[in-house]
Design brief:
InterPro entries: CLS_N. With 71 residues, the protein is mainly α. The chain contains three helices and no strands.
């Protein structure tokens, strides 16, 4: 399936793309702030490695939320 350009998308498709982008930015921002404020003892693995991992969209933030934080 060939890639669609923005002008080829329907208005509904454009809204979905924008909504997903907003959610992605919000979750990543939440994860970055949580990582910054959370003590090292409550983070699985080195915090310095989680920072760059959060930039791998969308897997980094999801991995941090599921596996990176200790309760």
């Amino acid at each position: 399936m060939p890639k669609k350009s923005w002008s080829d998308m329907t208005p509904t498709q454009k809204k979905v793309v924008v909504a997903v982008g907003i959610v992605e930015v919000a979750v990543t921002t939440w994860c970055v702030r949580d990582l910054k404020d959370r003590p090292q003892e409550l983070v699985r693995g080195p915090k310095i490695l989680w920072g760059p991992a959060l930039s791998v969209q969308p897997f980094g933030p999801i991995a941090y939320l599921v596996w990176g934080r200790r309760r």
